[in-house]
User: Fold this.
Amino acid sequence: MLEHLDWGKRNRMRHIIREDGRVLMLAIDHGYFMGPTTGMEIPSTSIAPLLPYVDALMLSPGILKTQVSADLSNIAWVLRASGCNSILDEDIDNESLILTALEAIKMNASAIAVSIYVGADHQHQTLKNLAVAIADASQYNLPVLGVTAVGKKLKDKREKRYLALASRIAAEFGADMVKTYYCEGFEEVVAKTPVPIVVAGGPKLDTYKDVLELTYQSIQCGAVGVDMGRNIWQSDYPAAIIQGVRAIIHENYSVKEALDLVESLQTEENRRQPLFAETKEDIEASKIH
Assistant:
């Protein structure tokens, strides 16, 4: 899977994708366009009980600098390198690069992440962002994660033909990994994408069983892991569901076994304590992308 990479890049990728060839990534970068999202208003508080179960964090550079201890080890950083828009705009696809490879290296990143919006109004700009980021990162053997993003207008584009197209384009440009959505026929998306695929969690699902089934099916179809955010830290028992997801990824649990584990961990100690009141606007904003 990684044999074709130079030593430095392969070593950094191994910080993310572990020895068993799988990864549990925790996405906490939503604030780069959503602001203080419910459940992630104070990131350091929200991630503290989750860090023991995480292989990698996907986050923005400002949150890494201010909310994550420099003493933390054994967790990889995947730093968001594209942005420049917010949920206040008509769509969120008009992005530029916000981070250079050199700055990412200074923060000891294992990779950077760049979103592409294939089929959106600003497709050309976001694809150019990916190309520039890959060329920049190649100077330092820094891996790049290409994210097949969908904006407000393309929210229904989570189907095989579109995701295979977007994922393959990211790989063709030279992305070392691709983050995309799960869909019916997902094994075909994986087969047509010649780099490791990580599945996005997306907006919060209805039940823990739904989260675990998404994880299980993604792995069965060939993904190396998941990059989940809201389905973990917006849940009632974040430390419980993340352990169930991890058990499927790294211990080959079935959905039933993982669900039993999650249910056994739904204790008062593991319950999420909301820090702020959630408004209707907050709920609607959290469903975007």
Q: What stands out?
A: The chain has a mean pLDDT of 95. The first helix runs from residue 7 to 16. The domain at 7-285 is CATH 3.20.20.70 (TIM Barrel).
